Amino acid sequence: MKRIIGILLLLLAVYLGYTGITKFSDSSSSVDILGVELKAEDNQQKNTSYIFIGFAVIAAIGGIALVRSDSK
């Protein structure tokens, strides 16, 4: 049972990590006009992406711990 929960946590970690990275890369955009770069950033979306990535790391650690403890 622990192994199944661990695998589900690892899958959740992959999903949250992908979502966080995608949100982070979409949080800013820039335009070049006559050699001048104009850049706009969405700080709220950037903070949300950090939260997603943080939860992904926590889920990955928990998943690895559960899978390893069940195999012993």
Count the strands? 2
Largest sheet composition: 2 strands, antiparallel
The structure class reads alpha+beta
- The end-to-end distance, rounded to whole angstroms, is 14 Å
Q: What gyration radius follows from the Cα positions, in whole Å?
A: 18 Å
- Count of the separate structural domains: 1
Helical amount: over 70%
Give the strand order of the largest sheet, numbering strands 1, 2, ... along the chain.
1-2
- What is the ordering of alpha helices and beta strands? HEEH
How much of the sequence lies in strands comes to: 15-25%
Low-confidence stretches: none
Shape: rod-shaped
Q: How much is the average pLDDT?
A: 89
Total helical elements? 2
Organism: Muriicola jejuensis
Protein name: DUF3185 family protein
Keywords: Membrane, Transmembrane, Transmembrane helix
Describe the structure.
- It comes from Muriicola jejuensis.
- The chain crosses the membrane at residues 49-67.
- With 72 residues, this protein is of the alpha+beta class.
- The protein has one domain (2-24, 42-71).
- It contains two helices and two strands.
- The chain has helices at residues 2-25, 43-71, and strands at 28-33, 36-41.
- Strands 1-2 form a two-stranded antiparallel sheet.
- A hairpin with a 2-residue loop joins strand 1 (28-33) and strand 2 (36-41).
- Helix 1 (2-25) packs antiparallel against helix 2 (43-71).
- The longest helix is centred in the C-terminal third of the chain and has 29 residues, at 43-71.
- The two termini are 14 Å apart.
- The mean pLDDT is 89.
